[in-house]
Amino acid sequence: MKYGIYTPNFGAEISPRAMAELARDAERAGWDGFFLWDHILYSKSQRIPLLDPWVTLAAMAMTTKRIRIGTTVTPVARRHPWKLARETATLDHLSGGRLILSVGLGYPPDAEFANFGEDPDAKVRAKKLDEGLDILVGLWRGKFFSYEGKYYRVGKSVFLPAALQSPRIPVWVGGIWPSKAPFRRAARWDGVFPLKAGGPMRKKDLVEIRDYIQAHRTVRGPFDFVLAGNTPGSDSAKARKIISPFVDAGLTWWLESLFGRRNSVEAMRVRIRQGPPKLK
After folding, report:
1. Under a CB-based contact definition with an 8 Å cutoff, are residues 28 and 63 in contact?
2. I need a surface site. Which of 41, 115, 219, 262 has the fewest CB within 10 A?
């Protein structure tokens, strides 16, 4: 069981330097990972500072040595996947092989897609996501690769250096349960980061997700079940009560959400320094 920090990449007090310092604090406090949102314009109506996650993750990689870092989640459809391949492979090397890439369709489609002339249609974004993942894996290998899809084309190319991790950078797939398509996609990769439509995630929901993914899993290897939520850093018994049912259902990563503390770096730091809500 692993424990990570999960926080937006925006807020009045947020800066790349502050996030790098928080990542260092998280490593010292015993957390196993630190994950950022990947947004470019969270809302057309909000006027708040927002950081590029990749530059920020690079800063975090330089202040840490052990913890995993990554995004939750990257909308591949609004990226050139060859550019994303360069960024992720570079960050994988910079971090010493600690990057995890979480992917999804992206939200909200009006602010992050239509506002910039990109197609916001969910089916289009899903197809771009699948094609983008194929391209990422092909370019991460550091061997000659070409691709011809409906939305993307890559002429014969080789990207060096190859990603540091083997067989590749782990990929988690986000989705909103009970929609099934994202979870069929997740079954082909290395982990799932589910949210639930209409309410909080319960143990029975994670059991259903686990069983559904296992029924559609066609590849071997480790698979992570990841949830985000809140636990009180000052009450370990209550924290165990919150997390234990999900662990029984197969949870492998708990991400402590700092979303409610996004306007205060100090509030984030306090919770981070309290440490993860370990069950033992």
Report:
1. no
2. 219
How much is the pTM?
Answer: 0.96
Q: Coil, strand or helix: which one is 254?
A: strand
Phi, psi of 218 (to 5 degrees): -120, 0
The β-bridge partners of 127 are none
Residue 262 has pLDDT above 60, yes or no: no
Given CA atoms 34, 60, 95, 24 in this order, what sign does their dihedral have? negative
CATH superfamily of 2-274: Luciferase-like domain (3.20.20.30)
Give 66 or 219, the one with higher predicted confidence.
66
**Residue 147 Cα distances to 8, 15, 70, 195, angstroms:** 34, 38, 26, 32
What amino acid is encoded at 134 in this protein? D
Boundaries of every domain in the chain: 2-274
**Pairing relation of β-strands 153-157 and 145-148?**
antiparallel
